Automatic annotation (TrEMBL):
InterPro entries on file: Cyt_c-like_dom (IPR009056), Cyt_c-like_dom_sf (IPR036909), Cytochrome_c-type_DH (IPR051459)
Keyword Iron: yes
Keywords for this protein: Heme, Iron, Metal-binding, Signal
Pfam families in the cross-refs: Cytochrome_CBB3
Ranges for domain Cytochrome c: 60-147
PROSITE patterns: CYTC (PS51007)
Gene that produces this protein: tsdA
GO MF assignments: electron transfer activity; heme binding; metal ion binding
Name of the protein described by the UniProt record: Thiosulfate dehydrogenase
Signal peptide as annotated in the record: 1-27
Xref: PANTHER family: ALCOHOL DEHYDROGENASE CYTOCHROME C SUBUNIT, BLL4482 PROTEIN-RELATED
Amino acid sequence: MASLPMSRYKPALAVACLAAVCVSAGAQTYGLGRPLGEREVAAWNIDVDADGAGLPAGSGNVTRGRAVYAQVCAACHGDKGQGTPADALVGGAGSLATAKPLKTIGSFWPYATTVFDFINRAMPYNAPKSLSTDDVYAVTAYLLYLNGIVGDNTTLDAATLPAVRMPNRDGFVGDTRPDTANVACRHCSNGAPGH
């Protein structure tokens, strides 16, 4: 096959460059949106890493968690986290390698901080982000207690929650396929636990 002269590609390259400039300029001239202030960004900057980075100040204990769970969570997850109509949160120990694995907080989740993060951002289903920070810590403590991971006198906060060792902490392995970047999270290069 004969090679084509570069001059045949110049018009297409020029059109592509012009389109890129137009798109860039157009984005600046429509006047859509506005820059967010620090307080607005902070309201949505609620992610929590495996190592606990991002956990807010506050605390909660199993006793308070039991009360909040009964009031806010039990209708969907059952009175003891057994599920119905929503997913089970308790049980499943030893089931992951079976034909019917039960993926719960106690059997599947690798980090207790992830439990907090999920509850904080997505629960309750009908009113996400409506629980106070203290109530999120408390419900997390109660769910860990129901799964036999912490004792009934446990109080969780930003210092104690990352120290909780989940039963499936070592159950996840990195993706070693050569065609993947294998980046588990954006902070893993700084020594986050398990990475």
